[in-house]
Amino acid sequence: MRFSHYYLTISTLIISCLSVSFSTAQTTEANTILIGISMGAATPSGVSSVRSMRMAVEEINAAGGINGKNLAIQVEYGDSKDVQNMDSTIHRLIAAGATCIISGSGSGNTLRAAQIAVSKGVMLMTAASSSPRIGDVVDNNLVWRTIPSDIFQAHVAADLLQKKKHKTVGIIAINNAYGSALAASFAKSFQKAGGKIVASIAYPDVASYDTFNFKAKLDSLYAQKPSAIYLVSYNDDGAKIINDSKGYVTASYKPFIFGCNGNYNNDFLLSADLPMIEGMEGLSYVHPMKYANYDTFFAKFKEFSQRSAETSDLANISLANLLDVEATNSYAATSYDAIYTFALAALKAASLKPTEIAKQMPSISRAGKGSVIVNVGEFAKAKDALKQGKAINYEGASGPVEFDAKGDVTHGTYIIWRIAGGKFMEVGTVAFP
């Protein structure tokens, strides 16, 4: 998925002003372990993710690092979100000596990054890309992520529409790694529960939708008069679909619209016709509710953000702080967990070989009898436990991190949002498992 965050994003115009290209290049030293951070175009939500990773690195190094070595990170920002943008950034990070690369960009970019990294024997993690396709990559056990697969979002969406007694649904989804996989997973879940998909429409992922003609797509979508529309889009394309749908809605026919995390931002509200989206609902990934480890992380992150602004991020940070988007970004928590799980696995592996580190990823986060619980900021505690030959169970900032056989986390929380009076309202939460 593209970056969205817990409450609001800023307008596309402001985002474009932030999209600069720079690299915090460095050379891997003998006493350091390099983690590469590959981002798409710079955004405030991306800035907070990078900053949370810096905080994790600072904590780990303050606790003595990993087997006598400190962690270091190298951040690569591209000048666009295009998949082709990944080739140069990933190759630069590999050439710099990265043991692990964390992809903070969209699902398509992460899939491309994984292809390159795996071919070079480098570990890859993502804290923001949710396409189910990532879990299916032939990866030699090298690809992991700390954000849930959209298989869960799809299942929750299907269940909610069933509970609202919608028997027929039309899907319109952007045709990329995020949209097509989420749409397919939703259709499978909805049909399995007895519902009927009367139309499934894909549209291309293009740079701008200002002049894109959705008429033929919408003719097919509305022809069967579905009771509900499942919209899998981002802000600009989603708003254009909504606005172009006005001619299909009448006094006697107005389908219920259900959206995804890509719609949960202020840009969508500003661009879409408000009467058309009044009552619209959807889902968005968030950190766990009433969860002590997130509260601890939040407090640490707020303090770290106030004292550690870096000049390389100055343009992004100033505007992000002004708009108060950082503290509410759930991807900051998953990014922090990506660094911690890698570091704990490397510590237990007592090796810098990516394949050996990857083997330990499940074991450092598995609940079990006698395992020592490691909470946010407790790297020194983990080191002591492992030194004593004890098993550890990392309970992360984003939730109790446990990986399945595909390298995906098995937990997560979504808020159910509704648009009422031109504003987002949070009307419920769904946690799994």
Task: Break the fold down into its secondary structure elements and pairings.
Elements: H1 12-18, E1 32-39, H2 44-62, E2 70-77, H3 85-95, E3 100-103, H4 107-119, E4 123-126, H5 132-135, E5 143-145, H6 150-163, E6 168-175, H7 177-192, E7 196-204, H8 215-222, E8 228-232, H9 235-244, E9 256-259, H10 266-271, H11 274-277, E10 281-286, H12 292-307, H13 314-323, H14 330-349, H15 354-359, E11 372-374, H16 379-387, E12 392-394, E13 412-420, E14 423-432
Parallel strand pairs: 1-2, 1-3, 3-4, 4-5, 6-7, 6-8, 8-9, 9-10, 11-12
Antiparallel strand pairs: 10-13, 13-14
Question: Biggest β-sheet, characterized?
Answer: 7 strands, mixed
Topology as a string of helices (H) and strands (E): HEHEHEHEHEHEHEHEHEHHEHHHHEHEEE
Supply the number of structural domains. Answer: 2
Span from first to last CA?
22 Å
The radius of gyration over CA amounts to 21 Å
Number of strands: 14
Name the CATH superfamily classification of the largest domain: Response regulator
> What's the rounded overall pLDDT mean?
88
Tell me what portion of residues adopts beta-strand conformation.
Answer: 15-25%
With helices defined by DSSP (H or I, 4 residues minimum), what is the helix count? 16
